[in-house]
Amino acid sequence: KVESNNLDVKVTESELETEEKGMEEESTREPESNILDVSSDYPREKHISIQRHLADLEKLADLKEDEKKPCPLCPEEKFKACYSHKLHRHLQNLHWKVSVEFEGYRMCICHLPCRPVKPNLVGDQTSSKMGAHYHCIICSATITRRTDMIGHINRHVNKGETESRFITVPAPKSSHEVLKESATDVQVLPNYSTPQKTDSYFNPKMKLNRQLIFCALAVLAEERKPIECLDAFGATGIMGLQWAKHLRSAVKVTINDCNENSVTMIQENCHLNKMKVKLNTKEEDNDEAMGDGEENTDTIEVTKMDANVIMHLRSFDFIHLDPFGTSVNYLDSAFRNVRNLGIVSLTSTDISSLYAKAQHVALRHYGCNIVRTEYFKELAARIVIAAVTRAAARCNKGIEVLLAVALEHFVLVVVRVLRGPSPADDSAKKIRYLIHCQWCEERIFQKESNMVEENPYQQLPCDCHGSMPGKTAVVLGPLWSGALFNTGFLRRMLFEAVQYGLDEVQPLLKTLVCEAECTTSKHFSTHSPYDESKQEECGVYIKTPNTSAEFYLVHGKRKSDEVIRSAAKRQKSENTAEHPAFYYNIHRHSIKGMNMPKLNKFLNYLSEAGYRVSRTHFDPMGVRTNAPLAQFKTILMKYSTPTYAGGQAEAPVHLTEDIQAGEQVQATADVKAEDAEFPEDDKSAVAAAVFTKGYPTHCAAD
């Protein structure tokens, strides 16, 4: 019962302190729009401005017809006591109509001095302005604008924070949506695909990425068992759950996340998939966490740590990094304790910098100078690998690139770790600069030399610098200049994809195998690649089921000098068969006014000319070949047909090679002769004369 308009609203100093978790900067246009989070013990009573019905608000005022009553939500200096009919209109129009509704409750606007307001100095007098505000039903924050209050409540709902802190306001938890991927169920929060709106981010478009990583882990699990693997950024835990559910006793899975809500979500998803959870959030217990080998095979360890901390404290055979944005901040920790012949995979989603849209960010994160080129996706993969190589070399480790994929949403790099200063030096030597011609898109890696080159343009196969004015080329890098794929590893990944029924990733893996071998052959056998007598990658023998004991590599032991020398010889012979660096886009180098041949036919033409050629996953119209750009354009011109405009049908003209080449030369001679006869103003007449002879109009203009 309210007896007077001077309500006893006591705000202690602890209640005026700002909580970082509850604070949201809704608007900064006016000082009154700032949010004050009033922290209090949980649970607490709801504010009087939060009511279910207008009648409940009128009961607070204790309306009587013959007595004047004050407004329970306004101070006396703002609204004086009045009779019931006037107070009823005031409560309805000023407080109730502008309220914010949430789960059956109304958060009415409040004019009481619940929040500190900066005083306004007018002359020598100080006047305190009482600002109107709303009280949040969930976190008890005070917000001035109604639109800001609606957005504040929506953010709570998106994060799943719908349980009120008030005893008298029971709010049911938000229903979680359950998604299924690769026989694994995960429950996600609303707006799960928007990382700014939720803590547990889940992107269905990254399914291909998760399947590639699973195949790489399955290949490693066949080499040695059991292996300890880490998903450093778990989010919903979907990736680690797939590892444990399909590979079972072959892996010991640890899912980590630094966000408390994500850790809770991971535990719930583990129970949803009937997995036992071992929670570990204490850093001092990490040494004993995975010490026992007698743990349940269906047990997943869930940790709440910073990714750098857990990778510094513990050793793993397989580490996957998938932060929001760049992963360069976690590379040093990842390579510090990763075991020998282990695998590190990282997914980079900062495509704006890697794809040369934000070049200053690429320089800041990767120390690399880049420009937008026709092969920008492969350039992005080589930038990431160069950063990985430098981080591994700082830990006296070398790498062998097993897989590099750059698609629309991400850049995935999978590398094998080779301990020792010698592999580190060999890997570091493969980081070089690239000379790129901006006129014709020709490119070549700089020679390995510490001496200053007098004329770097001489290294380019093209002669654009001699025929074009000014500086025609730029230096890009530093970049990884080695191979991007390991054919044997990719074939084993394809076998694992067939074994586990991952149909979506199989076409991509087939393309990668062709690209690694630089061939157009598409005959793939699904028999086990482990039936071979021995498997060798980067000069290292890998244990396979039918491999004899003399070729086994015991985990943790060094190889003999004879094995090292033989491996080095094999590496030198294998390097000559590496796939060519970069690719050409057939549309980028097409001839104006000419119909290009079909891409598969053009690949056959290049192969018949004696060049290695294949398609590439980086670009659907890209051609990876060791042919120089000049020869590439020559063959493209040779098998292109003229395009006829006007009323004629656009049917290709089939000419023999000799006749076609002869007519091209004759066309050029005719154009030169007719240019000499006609003045400059009669170029249109020349074009008409040439067109009547069957040549495209653009030839005359040239």
TrEMBL record:
Aminoacyl-tRNA synthetase among keywords: no
Keyword annotations of the record: Isopeptide bond, Metal-binding, Methyltransferase, Nucleus, Phosphoprotein, RNA-binding, S-adenosyl-L-methionine, Transferase, tRNA processing, tRNA-binding, Ubl conjugation, Zinc, Zinc-finger
GO BP term (any one): tRNA N2-guanine methylation
Molecular function terms, GO-annotated: tRNA (guanine) methyltransferase activity; tRNA binding; zinc ion binding
Subcellular location: Nucleus, Nucleolus
PROSITE patterns associated with the record: SAM_MT_TRM1, ZINC_FINGER_C2H2_1
Main localization (coarse): nucleus
Compositionally biased region (Basic and acidic residues): 19-32
The reaction(s) this protein catalyses: guanosine(27) in tRNA(Tyr) + 2 S-adenosyl-L-methionine = N(2)-dimethylguanosine(27) in tRNA(Tyr) + 2 S-adenosyl-L-homocysteine + 2 H(+)
Residue span of region Disordered: 1-41
InterPro entries: SAM-dependent_MTases_sf, Trm1, tRNA_met_Trm1_C, Znf_C2H2_type
Domain of life: Eukaryota
Cellular component annotations (GO), alphabetically ordered: nucleolus
Domain C2H2-type intervals: 136-156
Similarity section: Belongs to the class I-like SAM-binding methyltransferase superfamily. Trm1 family.
Protein name: tRNA (guanine(27)-N(2))-dimethyltransferase
Organism: Ardeotis kori
Chain's gene name: Trmt1l
